[in-house]
Amino acid sequence: MSLTLPPVRARQDIKEAFDLFDVDETGVISTDDLMVTLRAMGFEPSPTQLQAMVVAVGGDPQATTVTEEQFFKIMTNKMEEVSSHEETCQAFRMFEPSGQSAEEGPMVTAEDVERITEMLGLQDNDSASRIQGMIRDADVSGTGEVSLTEFIRITNLRANTG
User: Fold this and answer.
1) Of 51, 57, 151, 161, which sits with the fewest C-beta atoms within 10 Å of its C-beta?
2) Calpha distance 4→63 (Å, rounded)
3) Which of 27, 59, 86 is where one domain is finished?
4) Which of 27, 57, 86 is the C-terminal boundary of a domain?
């Protein structure tokens, strides 16, 4: 896993968050303080997920503290997840969803996808059947359209399988 450095302001924010908890300036904070920070960012990791995050940045599975470097890596990874989620939502909106569901909001239809592929010059003789297959793969709810939740799910599945 590569670590992409966040913008300077974000790095400063991460440092300030760490320093808030490192009151005795030892260079380590408790995993409880890490959990508080993650919750403040809108994440609700389970204790097992928190432990996995610590291990992923070189920490001990039984650790009750994290170093500033580990904290920085965890926060950077979480910021990248948020960015990735926002980009996926933006990609969904690019389809200009024409469908609508009372429960799930905007829905992408096969016609929406066809319109975009035509605009991009990606149409061929088999396009309609491939688009129908894509909609079928993504459409867990069985509506014949793809909600934002379904779009995120299928995008994540495809990203994680290669």
Assistant:
1) 161
2) 25
3) 86
4) 86
Residue 1 lies in a domain: no
pLDDT attached to residue 159: 57
What is the pLDDT at residue 2? Answer: 43
Residue segments in the chain with a per-residue pLDDT below the cut of 50: 1-3, 162
Residue 161: per-residue pLDDT? 53
Amino acid at 157: L
What's the alpha-carbon Rg for the chain, to the nearest Å? 21
Cβ atoms within 10 Å, residue 145: 23
Q: How many domains, the chain?
A: 2
Structure-token match 């990203």, residue found: 159
Domain span at 35: 8-86
